[in-house]
Amino acid sequence: MSDRRKAIEVRNLNKWYGEFHALKDVSVTVSHGERIVVCGPSGSGKSTLIRCINSLEEYDSGNIFVQQIEMKDEASINKIFSEIGMVFQQFNLFPHLSILDNLTLGPIKALGLSKTDAEERAMNYLKRVRITDQANKKPSALSGGQQQRVAIARSLCMEPKIMLFDEPTSALDPEMIAEVLDVIVDLAEDGMTMICVTHEMGFARRAADRMIFMDQGKVIETAEPKEFFEAPKSKRCQEFLSQILQH
Amino acid sequence: MKLKFSLWLVILLALAGCSSQPGIWGWYVIDPRTVAGYNNIRFLLNGFGATILLSLIAAGLSMIIGLMVALPGMSTNRWISFPSRIYVELVRAIPLLPMLFWVFYGLPVVLKSFGITVSIDAFWGAIITLAISDSAFTSEIYRSGIQSINKGQTEAAKTVGLNYSQTMRYVILPQAIKRILPPLANQFIYIVKMSAFASVIGMQELTRRANELVVTEYRPLEIYTLLILEYLILVLIISFFVRWLERKMGSDESK
Hints:
Helices cover 38% and strands 26% of the residues of chain A. By secondary structure, chain A is of the alpha/beta class. In chain A, the strands form two sheets. Chain A has a six-stranded mixed sheet, sandwiched between helices.
């Protein structure tokens, strides 16, 4: 039924928060290796969309396929969890564990790796996000940018096929945004399939294959970055871009 | 420092009463310099063991039952959370003393009607009652502690593949315990004091022994003063230990 190359397929997704219609018939398809940036004003449903994709949020109607498997019951969701990595706006590192333990917890408990294997893997990914000398510190001893890079490494330790980023730089001080984005660009260049919700338009131009613009729970526009930034079709999108790119 | 001060305060007050109104006080009854007084003191102090053991076992059971009630109680599935809700509301509403009577005198009869013959002695009767009665409160303490942990922690645990029990064990409870510990200690002190009720079903703990001595010596003022001091010392020791534990576990999150 669905194409082999599809990593994620969302069909006619609807989600209500009580009276509020958060997602209205949203359909999105992501191919393997594709890098998608989702943008839009706040409350437009972009975070809700990616939270639905990895089952952190329930939805009311529609279908979600990850790696051609429909996410509909506990079993398929559990199976797919290790395929999807997620990076949160607030990092959500485990504050009581050292950086190294943050990274090895999932691989040891969920994937069944031995402690030495998990630690070797963790050190590899810490090197990749350029944090190697802080493995034994607690998260609170690190800067925001470092914490977010650790969070990225923690996701990578599960060796996911798809990475979801939910406004990964929104909680960061301006001078730390670049170091986190660099790491994400690195990943993108390695061919990781990713969906990134962000307001960083410079990053979007650099890393995205495709832009998705959402407003009021609907996908308004989908286009390649060049086209998206230079000739946005919808009026809503033009307004949004003029506001966000003004400064 | 504070511990020493409050101890001296109570002792001073007692002694002051003793000197100003010589007719009221008769400290001879627990004067360690006389053989009778020394024996009386020994008799009273021997209740410590039972009070401590009773409180420790009841508190331990209460912590286990409380967790078993609190965890399903937080489920979003109403069928799972409903029994916990009922348990907490019901148990919290029953006064300790009637429950103690019911467990001690009534429970064996009820069990017998189901064909189970058990005799519940005062010790276990008191422990069961204290543990159940207290578990409704510990359950609520767990609930508030666990719910105070940011939802993002559960979500992050989920995204690294942890299931529910792993998430609780490795992520949520280790963080929640720091916030749970102070109110839990409060609850333990409460148990120590409530264990005095065990005296009414004949448990030989601090209060029972004081009562028995009062009946033979007719000196309630001195004996109950000593009884209060006994509880005070016990509770102060617990407070001191808990403070130390809190420091060790870093319950003080400000640093």
